[in-house]
Predict the 3D structure of the following.
Amino acid sequence: MKQMIIEGNHELKGTIEIGGAKNSAVALIPASILAKGKSIIHNVPNISDRDALIDILELLNCKIELEGDTLKIDSTNLTNKLIGASLSNRLRASYYFMGALLGREKYVEIHIPGGCNIGSRPIDIHIDGFKALGAKITTEKDKFILQADELIGTDIYLRFQSVGATINLMLASTLATGTTVIHNAAMEAEIENIAEYLNNMGAKITGAGTSEITIVGVKELHEAEISVLPDRIEAGTYLILGALCGDNLCIKNIIPNHLEALTSKLKEMGVNFTINKDNIIVNKTKNLKPINIKTLVYPGFPTDIGQPMSVLLTQCHGTSLFEETIWENRMGHVPSLNKMGANISVSGTTAIIEGPTPLTGTEVVATDLRGGAALVIAGLFASGTTKITDVEHILRGYENIASKLTKVGAKISIIEI
Ligand code: EPZ
């Protein structure tokens, strides 16, 4: 088990380089098996979710080469096998092998995916979409079996703009016969990144990034290259940190448009920052105004930034509200923040945050990825020493977090306990 130890209350200056987006990389990697041959993904973040997906690819007899942040995946000799619980459980995104294997092999056996404990996380929208394409789906305890003689393009209306279902149905339908139209599709920038990769392979996808995606099925896909787009959630996390501890802290390698939902809120609070072409410079700011945030599907305020943002809200002068609308259980970090001195009460999926309150280091637990990131921010801002256990949650999605923060002046280390 790993523990993170943070000595707080140091100013952070210099540059943090943002890596490739976790939520894009975890779909691009499984998508690679749709093309027979060696595909190349650049700017892959060094996170444990990447390693879990590589283990699944190796089970399926793909050849993997990883040099720095470039991942080469050769799926020429892919062997279709059951993806067992010990692999599928390690992350949520194992479910992208459903769409990718169904597309390529028309047969998949996989145990239910894992992922953060932030809600019930059903996959019924994915399953209904696969069925609409003509797949037959059976379940045996925790195992799904998906099979089809042929996938046939059709119109699919998603009852919620699910990121995972949108991507999974794009994956499955690229090699289907005829045209698929996904209505009420999720519109995340990551979805455009995946569509671009599939199009580089020879797929015919238009409309990714809008709520209507059209996929004209093709007979086969060829090897291709793609670069993972910058991680807007990693960038947002460090931007929030900069508003508390930054001294001209530069968050570099970002796409400012992708951060607009956050930067407009930071502006409303009075945070001192400057947006440039591919970076933002942020300074710690006093007299922050209280605000209300409500998480929404993209391009609304991202659910994955809500928990980190709640730490900044503890330093506003007055009452702020953080309302989570995507997941039922994104308040796991609140008891830890209160233990550090915050004044947060939770009612259902809304947190009421009174500020400002000084924060003091103590022993806390990361209950999930973004809740863990919130505790890192709190620990770096707090006086004294913060010890965070269950850091594995954080390492699933933030690459080299300790070394990136050390480089800008943080006193932070990760030890085995
Ligand atoms: C992706 O999860 C991300 N994960 C999540 O990031 C992110 O919070 C979420 O999108 C929303 O932006 C990955 O990309 C691996 P959804 P996903 O399907 O695809 C309900 C992080 O911290 N729903 O858009 O699983 C669901 O319960 C993580 O980086 C159904 O009811 O999210 C939720 O309430 C956590 N049935 C809502 O839709 C379904 O079949 C949104 O889920 C699918 C989803």
